[in-house]
Amino acid sequence: MKIAIASGKGGTGKTTVAASLAISLAANQSPPPLFLDCDVEAPNAHLFLHPALTEQREVGLPIPVVDEAKCTHCGKCAEVCQYHAIAVLGKKTLVFPELCHGCGSCTAMCPESAISEVPERLGVLERGAAMANIAFARGVLDVGQPMAVPIIRQLKKWAQPALGQVTLYDSPPGTSCPVVETLRDSDYLLLVTEPTPFGLHDLRLAAHVAGELGLPAGVIINRDNGPYPPLDEFCAQQGLPVLLRIPFERAIAEGVAQGKTLVDIHPEFSTALWNMFRQITE
Ligand code: SF4
Ligand code: SF4
Per-residue pLDDT for the chain (282 aa), expressed as one digit of tens each? Predict the structure, then answer.
């Protein structure tokens, strides 16, 4: 089973929940889960799970390079590119590497074989064992690189679950392409939110993405400091079960700031998260 933990906005406690759920699953069933930190622009789950990262692999994209001596400026490459990453301007064919998805279509379509491909590094994949024998892997996008999606795609291919192993995807925040790539093959989506107008606004967006992907989803309310009827009404209208409420509490804030999971701070969260997992699977 693959569970994605996401939120419409950053800072809601998504990684705290994901890491705490991993610890709870490791304590309650075998094998311990596989944890993928898919927030490749700012991975931070290692702060909670303390993996020993023993393997590393570079990730790159094949970027087209045009041989102007062969190019007849016919424009076929620009026509086929869905991302406007190659353009023919008069007697010049230009490639914009930061827009290129490395799909290879322009190379395949060029009638003059004027395009070759040069690998360009995007970042790295890393993996190793984390605390409680959790299998941990993450992608790290190089500074200045805009393409998170290929790293997430490669991370999922590289770090496959063992038989019977639950996979947890710690998603990037927001609702853009990297989030969709993370959620794409999930079986269930946990949406972490907070009881504020801003939290509700972004939950609406995230729930819409879940609906578009046809993903069953449930909600975890973090920093719960009492009733916030608009949030409960939205969840009821959308048929989103509220699976867990995490209290707005100084001890939790201090513990998380020190890199502790919910289970470290309040051990009873191990049972609460395990019960939530069973509720999801049932
Ligand atoms: S398809 Fe090939 S020949 Fe035509 S413009 Fe592009 S690079 Fe040049
Ligand atoms: S490899 Fe694909 S995305 Fe990149 S320029 Fe060619 S057609 Fe466009």
Answer: 999 999 977 889 999 999 999 999 999 999 999 999 999 999 999 999 999 999 999 999 999 999 999 999 999 999 999 999 999 999 999 999 989 999 999 999 999 999 999 999 999 999 999 999 999 999 999 998 888 999 999 999 999 999 999 999 999 998 989 999 999 999 999 999 999 999 999 999 999 999 999 999 999 999 999 899 999 999 999 999 999 999 999 999 999 999 999 999 999 999 999 999 999 998
Name the fold adopted by 2-59+122-281: Rossmann fold (3.40.50)
Fold for 68-113, please state it.
Alpha-Beta Plaits (3.30.70)
Atom index in ligand 1 nearest the CA of residue 70 equals 3
73 close to ligand 1 (CB < 6 Angstrom): yes
Which residue intervals of the chain bear CATH 3.30.70.20?
A: 68-113
User: Measured on CA atoms in the order 144, 147, 151, 152, is the torsion positive or negative?
Assistant: positive
Helices (H), 113-261: 149-158, 177-183, 197-213, 229-238, 250-257
Residue whose Cα lies nearest atom 3 of ligand 1: it is 71
pTM for the model stands at 0.90
